[in-house]
Amino acid sequence: MHPNIVSANFLTDNPVIYEQRFPDPGHLAARFVDDLVHRFGNGRDLLDVGCGTGRDARYWSAHGYRVTGLDSSPQMVEHAQAHCPGADFVVADMRSFETARLLGGHGNPKDPRPRFDVITCLDSAFLYCHSNDDIDAFLRRCHQHLRPGGLLIAEMRNGAFFLGNTELLDEVREQVVVWDGVEYRSRTRLWIDHEDQLLRRERRWDWPGRVEPLTQHSAWRLLFPQELRYFAVRHGFAVVAMFDEPGPRAETPWRRDAELSTRLSGDRLHVVLRRNE
């Protein structure tokens, strides 16, 4: 069975292969969020922006959260809803989503009041906001949809890591993912677009029977800690925590009640914001 290609984004068009490529059998990312909620906040109504396959939502739903997932990929949302019927999922843009479109079974979608205690934005989804206007729009939506005192938890690449550090930029990385007995090979290169402050990626996929490689381009905004603090305050948030280690994708694995490193020089950056009253 050959993979489905809709948007030239091989992994988001094929959620099963995505989970095969990025396994998280210990639910480290979901437990990371749950631990931070217990440490810094409370409440059970959670919106997951960039929900992907719904794997994290499955964990949260099983542990008492009322989850709504949002993603721009229809394939991901369809997969998530099929594998996590206890949550609600919607196709939407992170910069322009509205409460009325999040048609979950909990709460009234016509009620304009904020309905979430926690908003999550993991695996660098925040960095799909490429421009300052995009960041403003996303944080404005988060502020509108969080109850006073609610948390925005974001996990992303750290722009400060690239100050003098080129280890991710110096080579083409080759990887293989096997699904349904077929090997899918990727070659990935990264480079920095200094003018637009973006980390750009070109990834080429090839598999038996394909004549030409499938080439995929994507990019992430490189944000620095001080920028994030500025945008947070600008949109009515207090910075509760900002740390590089440990984390679900950091060099030091996440553990409950871990001491948080504020060196902020690592590859990953973790931010916990609280909506002001």
Account of the 3D structure:
24% of the residues lie in helices and 30% in strands. It has 7 helices and 11 strands. Helix 5 links the parallel strand 2 and strand 3. It is globular.
Sheet/helix structural class: alpha/beta
Question: Residue share in helices?
Answer: 10-25%
Low-confidence stretches: none
Measured distance between first and last alpha carbons: 53 Å
Largest sheet: spatial strand order: 3-2-1-4-5-11-10
Shape: globular
Please describe the biggest sheet, giving its number of strands, its sense, and whether it closes into a barrel. 7 strands, mixed
Hey, roughly how much beta strand do the residues contain?
Answer: 25-35%
Overall mean confidence score, pLDDT: 92
Count of DSSP helices? Answer: 7
Q: Strand-and-helix sequence, N→C?
A: HHHEHEHEEHEEEEEHEE
Number of strands: 11
- Radius of gyration equals 18 Å
Strand and helix map with partners:
Elements: H1 10-13, H2 15-21, H3 28-40, E1 45-49, H4 55-62, E2 66-71, H5 74-83, E3 88-91, E4 116-121, H6 132-145, E5 146-157, E6 173-179, E7 182-193, E8 198-206, E9 214-221, H7 225-234, E10 237-243, E11 268-275
Parallel strand pairs: 1-2, 1-4, 2-3, 4-5
Antiparallel strand pairs: 5-11, 6-7, 7-8, 8-9, 10-11
Short description:
By secondary structure, the protein is α/β, with parallel strands linked by helices. The chain is built from seven helices and eleven strands. α3 (28-40) crosses α4 (55-62).
Fill in the keyword field for this structure.
277 residues; alpha/beta; 7-stranded mixed beta sheet; 4-stranded antiparallel beta sheet; 7 helices; globular
